[in-house]
Design a protein that fits this description.
alpha+beta, about 160 residues, 9-stranded antiparallel beta sheet, globular, Alpha-D-Glucose-1,6-Bisphosphate, Chain A, domain 4
């Protein structure tokens, strides 16, 4: 399935969500927005969420720990381990997250940063889940597709101001 919304393209398979958007920003700036903790906190997560980064070591084997706070006060602890870091082209990491006290959900993430014209960058986020059931659950319970679109919109807003 493919759908477009607010310049964001979403494709799904039985175990993957792929979200892509072109930003009016150079690749290096988009890369920094994702890898600099002082920038990430300004846009990470869906509308109404805030993020506190506890640790962000962007290198193979490095850990990224952060807590997302939902608009209703719910805490979502997250932990990722970077597997591959190719500046400014690709980030690959394993990710675990949950509602505080809830069951942990795991996925593999691949972020690619592609120059698509003067000062423009396509960011593609590939989320791979261990099973079709896990993907179905993350979409229904956590609104993963809509949350991904909103996160991309927040990134676009952040980039337009920087």
């Amino acid at each position: 399935m493919t759908a477009k919304s607010n310049e964001t393209e979403v494709q799904t398979t039985d175990r993957e969500i792929v979200i892509s958007r072109v930003f009016d920003a150079p690749r290096e700036l988009v890369w920094e927005a994702m890898t600099d903790p002082e920038k990430v906190v300004h846009w990470w997560g869906p509308h109404g969420f805030s993020t506190k980064i506890e640790e962000m070591d962007v290198r193979p084997g490095g850990v990224w720990k952060h807590v997302m706070l939902g608009p209703d006060g719910t805490r979502y602890p997250n932990r990722s381990v970077f597997k591959e870091v190719v500046r400014p082209e690709r980030l690959v990491f394993s990710h675990e997250g949950s509602r505080e006290g809830g069951e942990t959900i795991s996925k593999d993430m691949t972020w690619t940063f592609e120059t698509v014209g003067e000062g423009r960058t396509r960011l593609t986020v590939r989320q791979s889940y261990p099973s079709a059931g896990m993907l179905e659950r993350i979409v229904k319970e956590f609104g993963a597709i809509e949350g991904g679109k909103q996160t991309m919109a927040r990134l676009a807003e952040f980039l337009s101001k920087n």
